[in-house]
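Listing S7. Sequence submitted for prediction.
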Amino acid sequence: MTIPYAPGRRADLDHERQSDESEVQRAIYAAAEVAIRYWSTVLMIIMLGVGAAAVALSVTPPVYRADVDFYVTGTVAPRESPRTASDIVIARIPSYLELLHSDMLSDAVSADRAIAQKEGRRAASREIAASIAATSPDQTAVIRVVVRNRSPNDTLLIAQAIAIDFPRVVDRLDNAGDRAIVRISVLSPARLQPYPDSPDRLQWLLIGGVVGLAAGLMTLWIRHALDSTLHTAVEVADLLGAPVLAVVERSNLLGWGRGHDDTNDGLQLLGTAVDRALQSRSARQVLVVGAGAGTAAVARELGTALTRQRRSVRLMTCEEFVGQLDQQPCRADTNELVVVDGGDDPGSASAVWTAAECGAVLVATAAGRTRAAQLRDSVSGLRLVHAKVIGGVFYR
């Protein structure tokens, strides 16, 4: 069956693929933005995790290690095959490993004179047995004994006692007859590792860092999920339904950083954009209202930026503006622009009345302070009085 070519369907698939890619890109950008925004929090939690690991290392007693290697050989009669000796060794190795973990060898080690003098009493056989680990690498004739203890001196003494007592116990058990069947020789004498075997400091610090990173990322996700404030100009423009005319650094609004070339860039763009909006609307008044942001500094800097546009500017408060309307509704000087500071509460009676009378309204928002619901309520209130919102200013 031949399926006819459908260019429309192909276009739909391409559009869906592009939409999926754009969604993925937006998600990646959002995740990167959150990580940049809260990187200090994540770093602090990672440092706390490493610090907790360091504290745990300081209170955890170290464990030292000593090693002893034995070599097992078998003996045969002159007429027996050498293979018989190898078979005897292979058959004996499992029983010797059990012997090294048994109470018989632990009792022999605990009766050692050096250990008895060190402890002032016969060391507990169970404690010695718990400190011994014996293995046979690759099921060969080599037996490796590892002793771990919190005292480096006791660790070395126990390993040295095993090097002496283990061949004696084997000789007493297997070579009690007319001839010796096996022979245990010390392949390498007891040696104490110069550094503690545990805890592994690097491993613990890495674990603390990884746990701190995981906790930091979890905290970042929870904080982002609970954070209802706005952090980008795009979010502000979407809720405002109008463009963001300028993004201004918060230090510039406070008067810091004077003398730098980039200090007045955002404010100059704001003045130019507001001047054009007022000319297009033939308006002479602009109200600055705040949604989670202060308006005094914004109104002052906006007046300064408009003055640089060679316009006559007068700053007023809502109360002054309303009083002027009652006394003199219209001024003869059509070249003068009035910038009204609407305050931080756009829902107040004076702010609402001023918004209805002004020819333009500018909404001031702040990153990390303006909440989405707050800006949404402010916009709804302005629309109820048919306020002419020309845009917003976003400072971070």
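Caption to Listing S7: primary sequence and predicted structure tokens for the chain studied. The mean pLDDT is 79. The two ends are 62 Å apart (CA to CA).
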